[in-house]
Amino acid sequence: MKKLTVFVIALISVCFVYSKNDPTGKYKVINKISLEGNERWDYLFSDDQGARLYVSHGNQVQVIDEVTGKVIGKITGLKGVHGIAIDPALDKGFITNGKDSSVTIFNTKTFEVIKRVVITGVNPDAILYDAFSQKVFVFNGHSNNITVLDAASNKIVATIPLTGNPEFAVTNLKGLIYVNLESSGCIAMINATTYKVEKVWSIAPGTEPSGLAFDNETQRLFSVCANKLMMVVNAKSGKVLAKLPIGEGTDGAGFDPYFKCAYSANGDATMTVVREDANDSFRVVENVPTHKGARTIAVNKLTHHIYLPSADFEEAAAGKRGKLIPGTFVILEIAGM
Asked: What's the pTM value of the predicted model, to 2 decimals?
């Protein structure tokens, strides 16, 4: 009860702050959550209702209480973690393991592993739970396909071929899944019940799209691309509506439906904020200073806090990756002021 009370108070105070300020005003880092471990990371996922942040980190997922900023659990023994998806109705979580092409299924109350499923593709990366179909979609980066799991039975029910390697994906919660195809510079629209690719749309001049966010109210997709563009796409027609400049080295995108803001997490130590106005008008309102390498993102749509992981690295020779400096892995927590 004490924890619930704290969360309600925090939520009320956050909502009060935002009601008094323009949400497109100054954003800033308000907290840095230090985590143990010296391995690299990929996606993170905010369970908004549960106020928990799931962080991929090497061969483990660390679970953070978003109210206290403390680690409350770990899922360990994993093999090259990429993405996390949660089915709150079943108290289940799903984690992609890129190194052994499997999905680890765990209990979100106890963090105990339920099962490991070897999937029908190579190097599973992004993962998405779709409440409409009650399926888990696993996006396999090296085999250009999607493995579909039944969330209740943990069984594989389909494999969907793609025309490019998949990156991040979103659902419209009405039977359609959208996924970026990095190698072909496209977005694919997939039927979540027939498991068919219904449309593939080019998002040129955007190239190598990675992060994808979605405004379900206006049916607008926000795809962040390697050539420093955020492409805004009509999710019904596939028409490109706008292109916005973002920072370099992006890998993740997020959207806050209340404030109509899309975010691009950029590896060049910035987070680009794009405001969606009426009549399909879009504008960059801010490039928020973050930390070099903070290029994936999660947005809590209840508290409106934004989370980006990063760390410090040693200098590296040209074309090579520097070693992560031990003890520097953090989650940046960002809010509007």
From this structure: 0.92
Q: In CATH, what number is assigned to the domain containing residue 98?
A: 2.130.10.10
The CA distance from 295 to 211, in Å, is: 9
**228 and 82 within one domain:** no
Residues 60 and 197 in one domain: yes
Indicate the helix (H) or strand (E) that contains 15. helix 2-20
Instruction: List pLDDT tens digits, range 273-330.
Output: 999 999 999 999 999 999 999 999 999 999 999 999 999 988 877 767 778 899 999 9
* In contact, 67 and 74? CB cutoff 8 Å: no
- What would you measure as the largest C-alpha separation in the chain, in angstroms? 54
Q: For residues 116 and 256, what is the distance between their CA atoms, to the nearest angstrom?
A: 33
Residue numbers of the domain that contains 279:
23-38+209-337
Which backbone phi and psi does 17 adopt, to 5 degrees? -60, -45
Cα 40 to the center of its chain, rounded Å: 16
Question: How many domains does the chain divide into?
Answer: 2
Query: Is the four-CA dihedral 279, 280, 285, 289 of positive or negative sign?
Result: positive
What type of residue is 240?
V
CA atoms within a 13 Å half-sphere pointing along the CA-CB vector of 202: 2
**Cis before 205? omega within 30:** yes
Cα angle, residue 261 at apex, residues 138 and 132 outer, rounded to 5°? 35
Residue 263 sits in the same domain as residue 137:
no
